[in-house]
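Subject: two folds for Thursday's group meeting

Dear M.,

Sorry for the delay on this. The cluster queue was jammed most of the week, so I only got both jobs back this morning. I'm pasting them in the order they finished. Each block is the input sequence followed by the predicted structure tokens. Could you check whether the formatting survives your parser before we put anything on slides? The first protein is the one we discussed after the seminar.
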Amino acid sequence: MLLEGWLFGFLVRESRCFSWLGSTMRMDRSCCWKGDFSALLRGKVTILVGRVCLVPVNTALCPVCGCPMIRRGKTSTGRQRWRCKPCKITTLNEIDSTAKHLDEFLAWLLGRRRQVDLPGGGRSFRRRCEPLWQLWPFSPIIDEVHEVIFVDGIHLGRGAVVLIAQTSDCVLGWYAARSENSRAWGALMSRIAPPALVITDGGSGFARACKNIWPATRVQRCTFHAYCRIRQATTTRPKLEASRSLYALGRQLTHVQDIDGAQEWIDAYQAWCTRWKGFLEEKTRRPDGGWEYTHERLVRARNSLNKLISQGLLFTYLDPTWTHQMPAMTNQIESTNARLRQMLRDHRGMGLTRRMKAVFWWCYTHSPHPQPAATILATMPTDATLENAWYHASQTHQATATIPGWGDAICFNELHHTTPYHNTWD
């Protein structure tokens, strides 16, 4: 009989044949797994199969010993009171709905539903989700090597930008900074394994950071941004013949498909530079007596293209060593920026801190392995956590009153003040 009970208990634990028990019963090993059959006399154990107790799913477990508890009356407000016989303690079965509220909060934040359309005009929703704005979803460390990574920054206001790195499938990292500079880019890139190729729009400071953090990674300048640099100098309706010729070359740049086409484009561009060399060297005297280039915008466009060609950043994607065709533009991350801007427009009216957190949440939910809501609540830091860390760091570094390891990131105390403060970010 004992062997039959043990065998049936094994089947209950391991087989799906008894899935009909799942909706009304659950297994509890804490009380009689090691032969403690006195569990039949404790709590409300309905069935003892082998060494497994099957108890109703609505039975609370003791927070001390883990055994099933019994009902013991109700409180004055009508809540169920539970008692553990072995421990002789009485408690209430608290239900923590914070994880469910976080899922609700993210569904609203990443969707297009307005708060006024929620039940009660959104008042109950705002009350439930107000504590969730305290969370900071930080980017994970990416140790998986990706072949291609796209990088860019989305500006949220004057002096506030979120730098983003992503693949064609997911977001790998994000970092808040005052501006696009080498230290901020380095802080973002240091948490990501170096890829084979990185596509960039030529943001300031990225080249230096890439040289220091990803020295073996090859860089491709987005050809569309290079064309935009030409278009900015010539306009779409140029008047001068030199501008018309350069604008035509710029439009051809985005359609280069092979190494022969790249060489033909470079030859045509060098011919343009030779033909208009004297024209570009013309200078005009300024009112203060100094000199400046008469066609300064064309000169800047020429210098920018010369730098890209000399450094080999314009046609890296056409290198014959690649096993397959590489991207030449930052279309994927520009699509991400467009979706982020649409989210901020859908929920317009948020302050800088909440706009930044909204971007962080979008990036986190599109990261390779986002954690469930319960794990997020247990691991992600809050405003109070960062404020405590800031306080202890400021006590250690009295001379500077800053956290040296943060670099050019936006400091926590600049976004949170206990007294009225004029916010000049927006």
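Second protein, same layout:
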Amino acid sequence: MDAYDLQSAIDSSGLPRVFFFNGRLLSAGDLRTEQAARRHADLWLGQGCGDGVVYGLEVSEASAPGASNPVLAIKAGLAINRAGQALKLECGTDIALASQPQQVGETGSGCFGACAATSSGNLFSASSGLYLICIAPAESRSGTVATSGLSGQGGACNTDVVTDTVMFRRITLDNELRDLQQNETDLQRLRSAIAWRCFGIDGQRQLAANPFGLAPANIDLADTLRNSKAINDCEVPLALVYWTGSGLQFVDNWCVRRAPTPRRNSRDVFSLWASERPWNQGEALWQQFQAQLAQIPLPQQAAFVARQQLRYLPAAGVVPIAEQSGENGFVASQFFAGLDTGNALQLDAEWLPGLLQQSFLLPPLDLTQTQPLCLLRIRENVAAYNGSKAQSLLVFARYSLLRGEDPRFNYAHFGVEHFAARYT
């Protein structure tokens, strides 16, 4: 291949646009070329921002619990797919999970051919199971216009308006997660184990063993599904749902939902670690734990034991605690039973946001192994509980997180009266 000279236009990497001038005859093809140029430029911008959910698009159950034909409620929001296309749901929408998919045109038209056919192993089935809910591009056509010179053939191309919109798909995950369904009998343990698999924690542990080389193609569940063609670059995962004959058992957004993450060209392990992906996954892992905790029914909280009913704990988390019988929350002695925790220390509230954010970069705690935890009470929360019966809470964290936030060297331990005022 011949080398290009400096400051010379590289035509092979260009984006053709129509050159307009007075007197030029324009055809529909010219206008489509101009539209394609503008949309390709938008796609490049979207690819630079990264794929993921920008905001909204939370999935929840809209039907009554135990319904045989469950309905999902999806909030308005915005996502960007790997092709760079913005997927906007303008208003909240209900989706019937048991409905048969409609035959649609080329969903890849909005992505200019990026959407290939999906694998037959993950096609729609009309039975209950584990499913991934994705948002994908679609288009609808409305209205007709008068035509001229088409010899009565205008019916195929006389559409007035083409609307770029979205649709939702469900992809069965029974093949990928069947072993967990067979081995885990407790529903909360199953949900936590599925999240562990979705985050690809076992695969990430192996990266540090030999970081000098290419990162594996399949790190988390989304990578596996893309490489097997179960989902394509035009789809963005939103949630995982577990549907049985008794109805929807849970809807888990954060085990597959990710914030927009730019892709890097290099696939080596160091580039992976230096990217935004570890932080975004750490946040999603923490959010998944907190969301699951919040959805555990109140009657089950008093006897809940984390080591038996969860697969993992994030590097730091917040647990609502019932200090007395009749209060809402978990019983601390039950929740942390069998874990190496020690006595709870106290921490000022101002340190908590930073502590949680630092935890996003640390791996979760594998509850099949014994690892020490530090329990922390927030000084302001203790005062609020004693004064107005606010919800009591406990913060747990890896000991490696407690460096600058050491609870022994702040007001929570010594009290304000032990600190002299600073004068200038």
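Two things I noticed about the second structure. The CA atoms of residues 118 and 230 lie 5 Å apart. The two ends are 70 Å apart (CA to CA).

Cheers,
T.
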